[in-house]
Design a protein that fits this description.
Blueprint lengths: L1 E6 L4 H10 L5 E7 L8 H4 L16 H5 L3 E4 L6 H10 L3 E4 L9 H8 L6 H6 L1 E2 L2 H9 L3 E3 L3 H15 L9 E6 L15 H4 L4 E2 L8 H13 L7 E6 L6 E8 L6 H11 L6 E3 L16 E8 L4 E8 L3 H15 L16
Parallel strand pairs: 1-2, 1-3, 3-4, 4-6, 5-6, 7-9, 11-12
Antiparallel strand pairs: 7-10, 8-9, 10-13, 12-13
Helix pairs in contact: 1-12, 7-12, 8-10
The structure holds NADPH dihydro-nicotinamide-adenine-dinucleotide phosphate (NDP) and N-acetyl-L-glutamyl 5-phosphate (X2W).
NADPH dihydro-nicotinamide-adenine-dinucleotide phosphate (NDP) binds next to helix 1 and helix 12.
């Protein structure tokens, strides 16, 4: 069995890691660190886990952590880059769910996250943990930067079009909606107050100001083989708990049919166990609720020669913890779907 530890285990991403890892066939959960919940049973933070474990949250113990084979870091941005080098030096494999190891370019990290990168040498070695694009690199990685939630949905929706050079990269718009759990458990503020959030939809950080904009741009540029690419990204907060729906638009370089593009997507994702391309309906968030799946649907508008691609994920599973476990499975040469093969809940 693989010994696994989690830092930041009492947050929403940490809670999903616990839920999924406790039933993973090849994993022994060795330690779960949280300052807020130290000494408490996991079930006190996550009542649904009460029956499955007697483990308690603990205060950080680097000795215990470095004895793990794999460590998941699920804290706020800016923490992992200080801890990861010690874990890597001790021989652990590290999967970071924050943004600390998502950018190969540390200037971009400084610009968007407001602090210099603490370990550029390890950052150079890190692999962007989107298995549908970087499976071969992840299989050999010691350090993985797990993608952001919106980037996962947007990149999976757009990558096949850019790889095949079918769209004008400067025409891409991403309009995405997220449930409130995307903001985390420890974030308090007026926007998350029930009476502000309920029966309300609001856009935020529009016009190139959201941190996920450079992440989406960097990966799509890599897929397209371009030095850089610019998108317009509009995130929205909507009154639900989990889920992201990304509606993406792009101008086609030449006329295409919906059927031809559906076939392109099916071919592109033929080795990707968690991506489902719909040909007879469009995705909605509920179909991916609680699962590691990404559902994709698309249509061509002949009048405008634009294609609209819609993708849906659960932000806490494919957008965070599930994807992190998918990465662990690849790094440890387990079956890619191990511990992750439950379908979404409906309704
Ligand atoms: N939520 C999401 O959909 C996604 C999140 N991420 C990233 O994952 C990382 C963790 O995010 P997320 O789990 O959402 O963040 P949370 O705010 O839910 O938790 C982060 C940490 O906050 C601390 N904390 C403070 N107060 C509380 C409290 N009342 N209850 C529980 N924990 C508390 C905990 O650490 P401690 O107790 O040790 O102080 C916890 O691990 C971030 O870097 C985020 O950007 C990435 C993709 C998606
Ligand atoms: C609804 C909501 O507030 N979502 C968050 C998603 C943040 C996140 O998970 O991003 P990182 O992992 O890159 O920090 C936001 O828009 O900031």
């Amino acid at each position: 069995m693989l010994n696994v530890g989690i830092v930041g285990a009492s947050g929403y991403a940490g809670g999903e890691l616990l839920r999924l890892l406790l039933r993973h066939p090849h994993v022994q959960l060795r330690c779960a660190f949280s300052g807020t919940y130290a000494g408490k049973l996991l079930g006190e933070a996550f009542p649904g886990l009460s029956r499955y474990t007697e483990l308690r949250f603990a205060d950080m113990d680097e000795g215990l952590l470095t004895s793990c084979d794999v460590v998941f870091l699920a804290q706020e941005n800016g923490k992992a880059m200080h801890l990861a080098p010690k874990l890597l030096a001790a021989g652990c494999r590290v999967i970071d769910i924050s943004a600390d190891f998502r950018f190969r370019d540390t200037e971009t990290y400084l610009q968007w996250y407001g602090q210099p990168h603490a370990c550029p040498e390890w950052n150079r070695e890190a692999v962007y943990g989107l298995p549908e694009l970087y499976r071969a690199q992840i299989e050999k990685a010691r350090l993985v930067g797990n993608p952001g939630c919106y980037p996962t949905a947007a990149i999976l929706a757009l990558a096949p079009l850019l790889k095949a050079n079918l769209v004008d990269p400067s025409s891409i718009l991403v309009d995405a909606k997220s449930g409130a759990s995307g903001a985390g458990r420890s974030k308090f503020g007026l926007d998350y107050h029930f009476s502000e959030l309920n029966e309300n939809v609001s856009a935020y950080k529009i016009a190139g100001t959201h941190r996920h904009t450079p992440e989406i741009e960097a990966v799509l540029a890599d897929v397209a083989g371009l030095p850089q690419l610019r998108i317009s990204f509009t995130p929205h907060l909507i009154p639900m708990t989990r889920g992201i729906l990304a509606t993406c638009y792009a101008q086609l370089r030449s006329p295409q049919t919906t059927k031809a593009l559906q076939e392109l997507y099916i071919e592109f994702y033929k080795e990707a166990p968690f991506v489902v391309v719909f040909t007879d309906r469009l995705p909605s968030t509920k179909g991916t609720y609680g699962s590691n799946d990404c559902h994709i649907g698309l249509a061509v508008d002949d009048r405008t020669n634009r294609v609209t691609v819609v993708s849906a994920i659960d932000n806490l599973v494919k957008g965070a913890a599930g994807q992190a476990i998918q990465n662990m499975n690849l790094m440890c040469h387990f079956e890619e779907t191990a511990g992750l093969d439950s379908g979404g809940l409906w309704p």
